[in-house]
């Protein structure tokens, strides 16, 4: 297989899997660009924030931090709370990305929730290069977000409308991805564990502080179960 055919087949296999992400990122990224523009930050700032930081929900939080009095410790705490989940699902990708080659640093850098959901649940079709497939899934998601947020910044001064509630697009996208994985998967133990642990921590710690405890509890439960289980984890359906 020559290089051109390898990358072409990988792109054609990856692209359909990223279409739900394209839909969500088109609306949410554009809204982010509009928000940046409304707060006095031009399209170049939207482009730089999205291409360098590439942290989705934290970018929305960063708009408030940028327009507030300088408070580095508060910014650090907020970034940790919002993005702590990356530590946990990043660990779960160690085996997936093992031996992936030169593209590994890029895959790590642009790994986001949506890309994780695809890469973690999809295997490249037979005959498609694994590294190239994961690269195009990651690159396309990254490209969608950067492009949409930059366009939002460009048109921000010309378009005026109420963007309140538009960020729910991201929540809706997560729900769709979750339901798709639920219907495709035969084993729902990890999904049920995630929901149950999140609800428990939400009740105990409140909406502002439940993310990190939830991740720790999920990690503990799954690690404990893996240690004592025999064979495959039984289905909870």
From TrEMBL:
GO terms for cellular component: plasma membrane. GO terms for biological process: L-valine transmembrane transport. The chain crosses the membrane at residues 12-32, 44-68, 75-94, 131-154, 166-183, 189-222. It comes from the Bacteria. Keywords: Cell membrane, Membrane, Transmembrane, Transmembrane helix, Transport. The keyword Nucleotide-binding does not apply. InterPro entries: Brnchd-chn_aa_trnsp_permease. It is a multi-pass membrane protein. It is found in: Cell membrane. Pfam families: AzlC (PF03591). Belongs to the AzlC family. This is 4-azaleucine resistance probable transporter AzlC. It comes from Anaerocolumna xylanovorans DSM 12503.
